[in-house]
Amino acid sequence: MMLMRVFRTLLALSITLSAAPLAASASSDKPVKTVNVRFNPGTTSAIYKGNIKGYQFHSYRFHAQKGQVLNISLDKSNPNIAVSVRYLGKNSDSEFLTASDQVLPFTGHYEVRILQTRNGARKNNRLRQYAVTISIVGSGSKTAAANGAKTEDSHTNWITY
Question: Is the keyword Signal in the record (predicted)?
Fold first, then answer.
């Protein structure tokens, strides 16, 4: 009887301890801030500013057409800030893209993440400022910019160009 109680206690403890890292890793993949990219009528770019700390990241999301050109300009004053761009469609884990003059390979949803380099995130765990310019041109973007950024549908806040 006593042995069974000890066994149950150890089993419960091991399950609890093994689940803790999973919860921590799941929460670290969630952005601190998510922004739906919007361009003012007649423009093809937008500037966003923010602050991140440690392993936090901010997500900037938009919808774009295959063949459009994406360009991300990051304020160079902080070398610890990095950008990653990815396609959020099928096989999105393998679709990381470059941030400069990237011809978009698919029509669909994309995400720009602003984060710190690993080394920068570990150092001092300080709040770091950034400014990023997101630009999308080509393949009908002038028409979309002239009409203003419209949301794709009422269920998502993605922007169609």
Answer: yes
